[in-house]
Amino acid sequence: MEVKEFYKEFHTWIVTQGPKYVFGIIVFAIGLWVIRFLRARIRLRLSQRAVHSSLQPFILSLTITSLYVLLIIWVMNYIGFEMTIFTTIIGAFSVAAGLALSGTFQNFAGGVLILLLKPFELDDSIVAQGQEGKVISIQIFYTVLLTADNKTVIIPNGKLFNEVIVNVTREGKRRLDFDVRLGYAADIDKAKQIMLDAVKSTKNVLTTPAIRVGLVGLDTDCIRITVNVWVEPANFLDVKIALMETIIKNLGAAGINFPKPG
Fold first, then answer.
1. CA 237 – CA 88 distance, rounded (Å)
2. What pTM does this model have?
């Protein structure tokens, strides 16, 4: 009797619920094929649009994972699977993960914005978070700089994007400024000419924009003459060292004295 009842109930379930499960399986299989097709199309479109290489895997993974989740949820909902418990578990896990990874999400959001808005790119020299160096890597969570003294600096993207970033390279030229302090007895015209000659004899100084040498300040114990020259960002430090040494040596050789420290 029990076997007949079981068979009857099973037959009824097959007749009433079976087509729904079969259709759900068919839709799931078709959905998997469509997602695989979309994966290839999305990857191709990202490459054609020149999306940053560090951002492409994330966009592709996020899109495909979302499609898989939507497909699974739709199929389970269609065949009548109870989603309340499943939804509650996902919600609780999302809240816990959000609290635990809030700093990580901030770095992630900063990385995405950096890759999309491009305040700097690879090989740019930047000043940020008290560090100056060349950008050698831009990742989703952090950016890597190489400093002039060959130190690797890793800066979290959350802090990097939310603070001031100085892009030294973007404009293609950088102005080198420094002041020379001379005594009031110094011949200003002679000193300026010596400085201009030193600038012209220094390698890697650009001729445009124009070189500027002139009096900019009168202090209690000295005058200040400023030197403004333009250089390529990569040559900034070398030109600064060479030019300052040449100016100091030539002024001293010409008998122009510097004020004594107070």
1. 59
2. 0.57
